[in-house]
Amino acid sequence: EARRLLASAIARDATIEEAYEALASLEGQRGDWEEVERCCTEGLAHDRGYVPHCLRRALARRLLALKIRSDEEEAIRLLASAEEDCSIALRLAPGHIEALLGRGALRTERGRRRVSRGADPTEDYRLAEEDFSEALGRKADASVWSARGELRTDVGKWNAGRRGDPLADFQRAEEDFSEAVRLDRRLVDAW
User: Can you tell me the distance from the alpha carbon of 28 to that of 62, in angstroms, rounded to the nearest whole number?
Assistant: First the structure.
């Protein structure tokens, strides 16, 4: 019923970005990420400066990319599009924590995909580190510490695979995870 009412509201006035946002939220609850992407894209066609649409579409594209196993090019395209959505959100709202976290996570994921293909993830990991560190400079939230800890763990694994010394990377990751747990004891997954 809610979907029908929201679609009706959009049909009457396509400039109501909150209706697109609510519809995208309902589709996200159902797990229909293609529809979430479509709703946000449509909403952005009417209001290019609406940050929630950028961020929700980035999330939808990231989740769609994570589901792809056979078409690596499509997954990389979706990750790049999602990263651009986060960058747009940051141009509209500089320092936005969710946009920094999202972009850092996307860059981390792209780095992981490079590693799985035997390519060098150094630039992706460096950019992700910048995003997470900027987010920490604005808000020392446990989820940001945890995300940076995961990234630093990935960097350590990459360095170990190249016969480098990963110890410093793993120590930095442990420090980040320790801070995450100190701030929020429920973050057991950080360890």
Answer: 13
